[in-house]
Hints:
The complex is a heterodimer.
Chain A: H1 9-28, H2 35-54, H3 58-75, H4 83-105, H5 111-125, H6 129-144, E1 152-160, H7 171-179, E2 182-189, E3 207-214, H8 218-224, E4 232-241, H9 250-258, H10 263-291, H11 305-330, H12 337-361, E5 363-365, H13 367-370, H14 373-384, E6 388-393, E7 398-400, H15 401-422, H16 426-431, E8 438-447, E9 450-457, H17 464-473, H18 485-490, H19 513-522, E10 526-532, E11 536-544, E12 549-557, E13 560-565, E14 569-574, E15 580-584, E16 587-592, E17 595-601, H20 602-606, E18 619-625, E19 628-634, E20 636-644, H21 648-651, E21 658-663, E22 669-673, H22 675-689, H23 693-699
Chain B: E1 3-7, H1 11-23, E2 27-31, H2 34-43, E3 48-52, H3 60-69, E4 78-83, H4 87-95, E5 100-104, H5 108-116
Parallel strand pairs in B: 1-2, 1-3, 3-4, 4-5
Helix pairs in contact in B: 2-3
Amino acid sequence: MSIDLSQFIPSFLEESFEGLELMESSLLNLEQGDDEAINSIFRAAHSIKGGAGTFGFNDVTVFTHLVETLLDEMRDGRRSIEQNDVEILLGSVDCMRLLIEAIRDETDCDTTKIEENTKLLEKTLAIEESSAKTEGDSNAETSSSEPNQGISVWQIDFVPEHHLVQTGNDPLLIFSALAELGEIIVVAKTKELPLLNDIDPEELYLSWHITLTTESTEADIKEVFEWVEDECLLTITQEKAIIDTPQDDVTQQDEASTSNTTIPEQQDLAKSEIKSAKATDTTQSSDKAVQKPKAETVGSIRVGVDKVDSLINLVGELVITQSMLSELGTDFDISKIERLTSGLDQLLQNTKELQESVMRIRMLPISFAFNRFPRLVHDLSKKTGKDIELILKGEQTELDKTVMEQIGDPLVHLVRNAVDHGIETSEVRIANGKPAKGTITLDAYHQGGNIVIEINDDGGGINRQAVLNKAIEKGIVEAGTSLTDNQVFDLLFEPGFSTAIEVSDISGRGVGMDVVKRNIQSLGGRIQVQSEEGKGSTFKVNLPLTLAILDGQLVRVGTETYIIPLITIVESLQTQTELINRVSGDMVLYRLREDNVPVLPIYKLFNISADSEDVEHALLVVVEADGQKVGLMVDDLLAQQQVVIKSLADNYQQVEGISGATILGDGSVAMILDIPGIITAALKMAQQTHTTRNHQQAVGVIA
Amino acid sequence: MTKILVVDDSNSIRDMVSFTLKSAGYQTVEAVNGKEGLDKAQTEAFDLVISDVNMPIMDGIELCGELRKLSNFKFTPILMLTTESSGDMKQRGKSAGATGWLVKPFNPEKLLATIKRVVR
Lengths: 703, 120
């Protein structure tokens, strides 16, 4: 039977990456004498090595072996934990990741880094070429130490200790293993057998004499007894060689033929041979596995058993409700209406719980996205020479897997920025009366149906004037424009804006804050900045918990129902005549406290008919995107509910101003409004037709 | 049907062992660490236990010792999955009551051949 090992590779890769993350985070927090941490690092390396060996990834095995050796020395106290070693181990984790990523992507790995690190490890371990040589030698020996020495007759005396069977060993199975090597004659010796009354049924009183005719070597025979060698007296004697070997390997044969010793004396030899036999096994199995690596394109998700159990429970309840309702339906009359209502209530409850449970399956703690940051900050602070402490909070806050995967890069960018532009050098900090060590805090928490991720630094804050000057220089805003702090900070997200005078190695990677913002928006989220000069900055990222379900406000315009994502809504209000300001033509601005908000009638946008086209006493839903507010004019506010998003592009085609659709309770289709899209389009339109100063002010920075 | 308890914290190895055993007609029950293995052993009987050594929460050596304390595991074969680097693990496994060991890395053929040495 042959088993295709490649099917287990995705799972090996997954657990290896997890292991590497664990190694990395534990290494970053490693303190002298923390046995549990060093043990878990060792265990992770050990598992990766074991898996790599099993699935035939030799380069991983060889490299990880070095790492493991170093860890082993730290683990049993032969080596104290030096910062330098930790750095080497961190570098090694990177190398292991490179190697494993190469397996995943079926590409070749850049070996220079691996080689460099191997040298470092070897130097640290003070084993240089000699060890590599020994390994090679032992392998070479293996291949020649298995000579066909012809058929011999072996006399074996096997006297087990009485308790042998209590370790689960079974003499009969040992004999059948021997029988596989050749022809055997087994004679049981019963002289030690006590009288029936004295027999302890859990003890073994027999011993055996075996005559084995085989081609196998003494080592092969010893391997059969390997597990019981300490619990028996074993004598193996070669009686005669029936067919002489044609090989010149006489010495070995001589050694074998004269051997008449008990196992313990020969233990070392036996062990070493078994060891080398395993080594050949490895290479064989690796060859097989390497031939056919399979790429896994379908992502997998690991789900806790409790989550699956709760799903099964809920489905069980759903089935009960369904059967109750269908029973009710077969023989229904009006007197049963109460039972019907309660049944439907139950169905509603079941569905809701089921939906929540299914969503929960896709939810992972945000630590999956956070866990890369300790290393990142560690490396960055070394590179920049800044002393920085990273604090992670709310790591157990759960977030949809897809959102998590896409938020990783923007977060990295924000953290890099915090290190690079936010935190000052220790000297500057001390001069400003701050602690020398800077702090970056990552915090995640749930707020309503959203997750909020805050990236806070206690650095210098954003220099308002520098940002403004830069924006003017780049032509993003006109000189003399008066802007609020928030509007100034929003300039950071404008394409082509970068406050760093020189593009640095750390944050200047060709990706600007505009991309960060775009990524966050494409997830249906938003980003805000708060900053106080001299005290620090906070970037606040607001994301929906999931991309599949949206909290929406249902609104009616004429006969149509639209859905406005709740996250975009600032407030809803009824217009007051004195606050309406008709600028020119059909452009209407509404005075909302200190803002002038352009009014956008939905009926005009989609060219449908509304109940009322009058702006006075109309209902406005004020929505915000890109720091820009508009008032959507609707006929009626309906319910707020969670809707399941159906892609319009998949089912029909992309429509401007619409981000998707959903099916409502009555079976009708409702469009979900794409608020950022609508605002951008509306402002562009407005800008083309109007250039009055008034409007300029309203449109502000977007111009 | 021969029922085997497979204890390993590595999903891939556990899957591989379990899949190989099932393909060969054995019935398997899986556990991710010694503690879970022990819990399962307390509620059902097995013909063989295959356990990794290095595991969080409860390692294979401790599991082995605990199993031998259970009356219905007194004679049950217990195989430890060891690696070459853990040389004295074999010895420690034996003193905890393990029947034998299988050295990693191993392939399915080797696994099945080894199992034949402990179950009929």
